[in-house]
TrEMBL record:
GO terms for molecular function: oxidoreductase activity. This is Short-chain type dehydrogenase/reductase. It holds the Pfam family adh_short. It is an enzyme of class 1 (oxidoreductase). The keyword Transferase does not apply. InterPro entries: NAD(P)-bd_dom_sf (IPR036291), Peroxisomal_Beta-Oxidation (IPR051687), Sc_DH/Rdtase_CS (IPR020904), SDR_fam (IPR002347).
Length: 215
């Protein structure tokens, strides 16, 4: 079992971001996930080829900022989105060796989320009951433990949210409504069509992963 959870923040609005901040976040998140995963999975592949197939488990850490977007987190969001996609590709490649790769986007009160709670963008009262701290990071541990077990062998390439007592399976990008004609579009034609196409599509989710209600 390999759990990749390394993270740093360098939050800036896009127009104020320095290249050094971008590089630092991408290096820690994306390279910091790729490097351990690459070596662990190479080991599991070699074991499989030698007739000693393992039940390998990888759990990588994304974020709602990477899946749904969050103001001021261009580099962090890009890195976390990259981790989710990298995990899904790895799941496709490694199943033959007995390796599953899944991703979590956890919620909890940590140094990374304190500013979201103070700003009101993350609701600490979510799923609250007496005596239960819904924002404790410890609430994420059971999901990670189960995904790391042999019992989860049929689950791979999925992204799970964990917050309080709720576990969610994220539904990723998919092709929505479309317009089509037998040939190339002229840009002048699209103004009458694309706004209606977008209205037919499901709105982007909020930071909580919730689809806003139609106006």
């Amino acid at each position: 079992m390999l759990v990749n959870n390394a993270a740093i923040l360098r939050d800036r609005m896009l127009v104020n971001m320095e290249v050094e901040d971008w590089d630092a976040v991408i290096r820690v998140h994306l390279r910091g996930t790729f490097a351990p995963m690459r070596h662990a999975c190479a080991y599991w592949r070699d074991e499989s080829k030698a007739g000693r197939q393992r039940a390998g488990r990888v759990i990588n850490t994304s974020s709602s900022a990477g899946l749904f977007g969050n103001i001021g987190q261009t580099c962090y969001g890009a890195a976390k989105a990259g981790i989710a996609c990298m995990s899904n590709v790895a799941a496709m490649e490694l199943g033959r060796y007995g390796v599953t790769v899944n991703t979590i986007y956890p919620s909890g009160t940590t140094r990374h989320t304190e500013h979201l709670i103070k700003s009101g963008r993350l609701n600490p009262a979510f799923n609250a009951v007496d005596g239960f701290d819904a924002m404790s990071p410890a609430n994420v541990a059971p999901l990670v433990a189960w995904l790391g077990s042999t019992e989860s062998g049929d689950i791979t390439g999925r992204v799970f949210g964990s917050r309080g007592g709720r576990i969610t399976v994220a539904e990723g990008w998919h092709a929505g409504p479309h317009i089509e004609k037998p040939g190339r579009w002229d840009a002048a034609e699209l103004g009458a069509l694309v706004p209606g196409l977008v209205r037919r599509a499901t709105p982007n989710a909020t930071l909580d992963g919730v689809i806003p209600a139609a106006a």
